Amino acid sequence: MNTKLYFLIAWIFILIGIAIRFYFQFISWTFNGDEINLGINIIEKSFRELLLPLERGQSAPPLFLLLMKFFSLFGKPELTLKILTFITSSLTLPLFYKIIKRKKEKIYLLALGLLCFSPFVITNSLTLKQYSFDLFFIVLGFIIINYKRSSYTLIIFSILFCLCSNIGPFFCLSSIILILNQANFSRFNRFHLRSILFLAVGPIVYFIYFIYFINQEGADELRAFMQDYWEEAFAPLNLDFIKWYLIRVKGLGFYFFTSYLLIDIFLLLISFIGIVANLIEKNKNEIIHKILKNYLIIISIHLVLSSLKLYPFSDRLYLYLAPFLYISLTKGILTCLNIFNSSLLKKKIKLKYRFHYISFILLIIMIYQIPYKDNDVKNTISEIRKYNDDIYITQKSKASISLWFELTKDRNVQEILEKSNILDIEVLPEKNAVILSRQQLKFGHQKETSLPEIEIQFLLSEKKIKLVQTFIGYKLYIFKP
């Protein structure tokens, strides 16, 4: 593959990735419950109040909240709150390309393709949370650390990263460790000292804000709520740690590769081969080698904090690991092919290099699945309004839809809430009616993660209702007396 074709394919990937993000962020858009609760905090609170413990069990980095508040002041909040995460999610793609294009092996287009099209990355990087900032700043950080390290750049970057993302302090600390390792102490000079001091500014500012935050009213209650909510995401310090780590590893494969059957485990094994191959590589100054070493330190810090119940290690919170896993997978595939080619050459057989391109095309097709958020109220309400029958909704449905209305002030939602009745199996409708129930979905290829609500299960067993339409997070039934 020549350079021009490589450049063309890379930018096709990037532009399609941005187009997919635009579609799901501004055309087929929705909010999940967490986003709604955080969005209401952002809209209702002042800039100063956003620096204090939030309500509704929500928490986010201070500068992220202030930026979101600023954008919410222009136009409809349900749309303006989506702008910044769309920008950071989209900008991550060309930044990542800047890193992988320095590799002579064109198979690294696979890593770019996975980052562009992964449904897990798309969904969570567009969420009204700081996860998009985690991913954007860590990719930007690798570029700054490896290509440009001016004084002002490092200071500004470290402050922005640490105040916009909880991963910022992890990155700055790991980069400091790598600088010390690179200098070997005996060759430590003024340049290394400056870099360390400038990178340390961000974590220091973050720590000062953290001390201020935990001493505010409501901080203890919020911390207790978070520790209870994320209980399973904290690494245990007993014999259960092996099971916990195995579940986390399985989760990494499921979310980032979203594959059928056990293919995700197979891809994780190849990724592990890529990590090992990278660590034993002779060229220690090569950028991919530095990035993966940096990631390993960051993951170690994250796991230590998880065991101390200071920062959970779970699905959307490790979105920032996407470049690490996709680069490792690509490196692993390349290593396996090189080993295979070496054994074939002894038998005078040569495996064509085109297999590399076939492999990444098949992988992209294999992992592709439409991104979604499990709360498609907008389309659900739009369909319900087409029915002239009486409308009944379950308690769970009403709670979710009411929360949506609280953020969006959508008149169509308000109309349905006012004209609908709460479903009660003790007092069933006396004529034809439509019933809306809440049924949450899970990420991946399996469609349902929960059974229908109790009332719905009863009516189904009595054959009094019939499913007519399924939405993301909701199901619509027809009732016939």
Please explain how this structure is put together.
The chain has 481 residues and is mainly alpha-helical. The chain has two domains: 365 residues, no CATH class; 103 residues, no CATH class. The protein is 62% helix and 5% strand. The longest helix is centred in the first third of the chain and has 25 residues. The chain is globular. The chain starts with a helix and ends with a strand. About 1% of the residues have low confidence.
Helix-strand blueprint:
Blueprint: H1 3-27, H2 33-44, H3 62-72, H4 77-80, H5 83-100, H6 109-117, H7 119-125, H8 131-147, H9 151-164, H10 168-183, H11 190-214, H12 219-229, H13 241-257, H14 263-279, H15 287-307, H16 322-345, H17 355-367, H18 377-384, E1 390-393, H19 395-408, H20 411-419, E2 421-422, E3 433-438, H21 454-461, E4 465-471, E5 474-479
Parallel strand pairs: 1-2, 1-3
Antiparallel strand pairs: 3-5, 4-5
